Amino acid sequence: MRSPFAVLYAGTLLSLTVLGLPFVVAGLLGARGLGTLHRRLVGRLLGEYVEAPGKPPLPAGLIARGRVVLTDPVGWRALFYLVLRLPLGVLGFAAAVALPLGCGWLIGFPLWIRLIQAGPRPDVRLDAASPALGLPLLCAVPVAIRSLSAANRHLARLLLGPARTQRRVRDLEAARATLLADNTDRFRRLERDLHDGTQARLVALAITLSLAEDTLSPTAGPDLPRLRALVDRARTQTDDTVAELRRLTRGIHPVALDGGLDEALTGLAATSPVPVGVHRDLCERPHPVVARAVYFCAAELLTNIAKHSGTRSAELTARAADGRIRLTVRDDDRGDAALGTGLTGLAERLAAVAGILRVDSPPGGPTVVTAELPTRLC
After folding, report:
1. Which of 112, 260, 279, 351 has CB atoms 3.0–4.6 Å from 175's, for a disulfide?
2. Is the pLDDT confidence value at 155 over 70?
3. Helices (H), ranges, the chain
């Protein structure tokens, strides 16, 4: 661990010249490598899994690569970890080796002193005090080792993992991939429904109109009863086609949101088979994308309550303040719910708009699901 510090020390001394930069780059690369080693040791010896940070990009050219290393936050954080790890290592050695040896010396002090000095001792108070001091210190050894191990785990988790911005970018990339896959499946279903359902209805409508046109033949004269039946059939087919188009487009943009999120949530609660009490305080109007995400989240949570929980009543609360909107759905079921497949997918979709989903469901209930999102998208 000394080599990165030595190289960085040399680079610092030469930092006023161009010659110092290669030393700093080499020191940061060494600190990054030692950080990888310490991350594996923490996982193997202390049982603390630390997520591996992403590798830095490797542009062409030595100068460009050196610039990337100098601006790499992972290398600087690994260097900071090594600096803080040094006193922790010294304290760990003292707690695991020096302190037990000292306690052993204090507990056995009356015996050691008699082996060293023969004959009677005029003052035996020290012989009685040393074991009384050594035994409590020996009992404190496991506590000290556990405390230092916890500090080491926390330090590794804080400095050896990916930076907050890197973790955020990684989460957003995963959420974007999930959202793209979900949208792709949705558009494929929409295309299939339009092809197999709506298109077939429109073809049937065109055939009906052709038959109606045939009844208006000028040679034989119009067949009014048949014409009336065909017109009625065409009107029914038109109504069915319009209804199906509304059903298909409802998943793209809910019509209920045209009157605002407040009215949309009230409508959801009114159509739920489970009695739902609604509490709203939407002083800030959210972004349309956020409002749509909140609407679909509330719809899915109320659907899950009606299908799976067997609850008798539920409560939906929506509040927007300080740039955040919070949706809470509470029911009186038996509890013990978790982020299953449906809620996991919902959490991933919320993550695409910087939202989070929390589930609180102790055994015996109640179950409280909270979704929190920003009211504005950057």
Report:
1. 351
2. yes
3. 2-13, 20-45, 62-70, 73-93, 99-107, 109-116, 125-159, 164-193, 199-214, 224-250, 261-271, 288-304, 341-351
**pLDDT at position 36:** 81
Burial of 193 (0-12, 13-18, 19+ CB in 10 A): middle
Check whether 181 has a pLDDT greater than 80. Answer: no
Report whether 212 contacts 234 (CB < 8 A). Answer: yes
> Residue 116: helix, strand or coil by DSSP?
helix
- Going by C-alpha positions, the residue among 211, 205, 239 that lies closest to residue 227 is 211
Is 127 a residue whose pLDDT tops 50? yes
Give the integer Cα–Cα distance in Å for 40 and 172.
Answer: 26
CA distance linking residue 369 with residue 359, whole number of Å: 5
Confidence category of residue 101, pLDDT binned at 50, 70, 90: confident
Q: What is the mean pLDDT of residues 120-131?
A: 62
Cβ atoms of 152 and 46 closer than 8 Å = yes
pTM of the model: 0.49
Q: What are phi and psi of 63, to 5 degrees?
A: -65, -40
* Three-state secondary-structure class, residue 16: coil
